[in-house]
Amino acid sequence: MIAFERIEGFDWDAGNARKSEEKHGVSQTEAEQVFFNVPLLLAPDLKHSGTWSRAQRVRFPHLKPTTQAISLRLPLSLLEQIKVEANKRDVPYQSLIKVWLAEKAG
User: Fold this and answer.
1) 83: which of 43, 64, 99, 101 is 20 to 30 A away, CA to CA?
2) What is the DSSP letter of 18?
3) pLDDT in tens, 29-86
4) Is the CA virtual torsion 37, 42, 46, 51 positive or negative?
5) Confidence (pTM)
6) Cβ atoms of 32 and 66 closer than 8 Å
7) Helix axes 76-89, 93-105, angle to 10 degrees
8) Which helix (DSSP H) or strand (DSSP E) does residue 19 occupy?
9) What pLDDT score does 64 carry?
């Protein structure tokens, strides 16, 4: 039995990422996003599964999206302002930057 609650991330290989994009038009990021939708919507896929008799509801409490390290050059004064704001909120400044970027992009 798979311990779904112990799954922490995604393990993509280059071949599967490429095939998913080519065959289904779905990027790796789009495929991952499905697991973070609230509520998670399910629909029958009789073509591929044939039956829902084996289906079970699962949770992934430790699952995190794939991340990629980037280098970002900021003016020193801006970085210091961000660190001050992060300190006020008692969070790491990199985490605060991610939250702010997600809010703007969302």
Assistant:
1) 64
2) H
3) 888 887 777 666 666 677 776 666 666 667 777 788 888 899 999 999 999 999 999 9
4) positive
5) 0.51
6) yes
7) 100
8) helix 14-24
9) 81
In order, the DSSP letters of 32-96 are HHGGG-SSPP----HHHHS-STT------TT-------------HHHHHHHHHHHHHHTS-HHHH
Spatial contact of 96 and 85, defined as CB atoms under 8 Å apart: yes
SS3 8: coil
- If we measure between CA atoms, which residue out of 58, 64, 57, 48 comes closest to residue 11? 64
Q: Which amino acid is at 3?
A: A
